[in-house]
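Researcher: For the record, we're logging two predictions in this thread. I'll number them. Prediction 1 follows.
Model: Prediction 1, sequence and structure:
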Amino acid sequence: MGEETEIQSSQQDPIMTDSIVTKKQIIDACFISDDAKFRIDAILSFDDECNNGHNTFAITATTYTKSRNGSWVYESGGCLHDKVKKYFPQYAHLIKWHLCETDGPMYYIANTLYHAGDKDHWGLRKGEFKHNRDAEGNLKWRLPYLSQDTIYSMEKPNPIIVEYEPQGITGEGKERDFDAARSCASWPEATDQELMSDNLKEVLEARLPGLMKEFREDMEKLGFTW
């Protein structure tokens, strides 16, 4: 399975306790259709090939079609999870761990909250206004745009009083993407109502230890070194 380096355990990082960084841990699986014209390879990996300091699980697939001369021609590849479910049902339950690391799913809380919520990347709902501030906390103001058009009049026009207006951002909001939130949380059975809960962050934090215990068990069942 390649060179291994033990990570020192820490009371502040219980999830990582006893974890071992490995440079290459891979399981390959192949399915070829009955007519031998279609092939799909699945790859399951749990290692630190990217040198991030911890092991990450990934499950991907590559499909091929048979050419006239009998060679396999690349068709598609990547996170073909629907095809993995179809051709490798024994690995379907592992898809929820895709990009999960030994210290938790990637951006577990931040990404789940973002996808489950209706706020845009500025943290604003549609129509909400955020008044900009400088580094010292002062509110920012600006003069509104003044027209440069010429005014024709027999007399000099009256002066115009211009008031400063707030400078800021008006939110566009976004649609909630519950499927993406379930994926980020490794929580495929979560209901829409659970993901819309006001205390979703606390719920995610509370379920993380149990989630990681399940993740470790699944990795070790595959024969991977944790």
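Researcher: Logged. Prediction 2.
Model: Prediction 2, sequence and structure:
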Amino acid sequence: MLWEMFLTFFKIGAFTFGGGFAMIPIIQQEVVEKRHWVEEENFLDTISIAQSSPGPIAVNSSIFVGYQIKGVTGAIIATLGAVLPSFIIILLIAKFFYQFIELEIVEKVFLGIRPAVVALIFSTVFNLVYKSRFSYLGLGVALIVALIIVFLNINPVFIIILAALISVIANKLKGDNEEWDEE
């Protein structure tokens, strides 16, 4: 199982261009749909936690998925599988890149990869929104928060802290109201 997990995450790391968000649909396909190692709802929770944790989302996702499957050993194996291809590719690029950077074909390859990366990221966002059972209120709040961050140039960390405080207060008030209803 650990070897299969390593190979799965190695393949994901090797064939996904565009960073962590581009890896999410591939991880989902491999560990949720194809191998059934993680349930869909747990995977969505994992992505939420991975995104809010410090560090690259692909590495965090690998850690959390590996941990769900095989504990600490699984987290280590999945993470190694996900990051080793990038590490190896970067070493090779660092060794040979300057010899080929001026070639027109190299420029065209990078220009061709960009739209695919945008499509993968859009696909990820669409799938996460569709499967997370957003209400219209939740979708409206997300849109308003995105607009506030973009147009008022407010640091997203402050928005996250404010949202957490509002959530704690709302759930506390909701809990207090349920206690009153029981009496």
